[in-house]
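Lab notebook: predicted structure, single chain.

Context: the supervisor wants predicted structures on file for every construct in the current expression panel, including those that have not yet been purified. This is the next one on the list. No modifications to the sequence; it matches the entry in the shared construct table.
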Amino acid sequence: MTAPLLTVDNLRVSFPTPAGPVEVVKGISFSLGRERLGIVGESGSGKSMTGRAILKLIRPPGKVSADRLDFAGIDLTRQSEKAMRTLRGARISMVMQDPKFSLNPVMTIGEQIAEALSTHRRLQRRELDQRVHAMLEAVRIDDPERVARLYPHEISGGMGQRVMIAMMLIPEPDLLIADEPTSALDVSVQAQVLDIIDDLVKRKGMGLIFISHDLNLVSAYCDRILVMHGGRIVETCKAGELSQASHPYTRGLIAAIPRLDETRESLPILDRSQWTAA
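Prediction complete. Output recorded below exactly as produced.
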């Protein structure tokens, strides 16, 4: 049996408050192969904190602990910040939610994508430019040479999201963490961006963690789904079997999704206080 790409055991994330420490991720455990794993839940469920904790991006005063946090045989809990910098981008990449806050406004698009690769590999300028232009084409950007010369304020939100994907994928990482990668996009561009991620993940045999609040999107693009509520995983299921989910919280999320053929006078309201982790 092939060893998992990522193993997470009893991951906890907490932050101090005047009333004492508050845990936002409460001892979750899961494993990931070279597959597409969706993590869904409402805002505040701990989805994004889970992704950031894997990359050790939770800064003090936040605290992260885990019995095991293993990536491809590497114990991430024992890695220094210098060691993590060699892993981030090269082996594990993360696409953030909004490109406006992730792209450097004083660097051209080409310079930023090139930097994501040259940080980890030494390449001649000509080869580096060729790789940048090829990556822009891979994320379906027309006229990549022209776009590479533009600055972030000169491109649309949809193109900015594609540029972010290009930056994260050009080092050819083993794991991509996509945190709400299409939340700021309209429906047509959203589908295009997800198709790009899906195609590149399949062709390169990568592992994908797709973090979202949209159950329909995750069920369409992932192999497995973890449902989070209150910092805990309350249910795990195959994406194709989401409609048969058994946990009342998951059932409540599904019931709250509006449909085109909606006949109900009002959508159900979730009573979150009654649910605890399964």
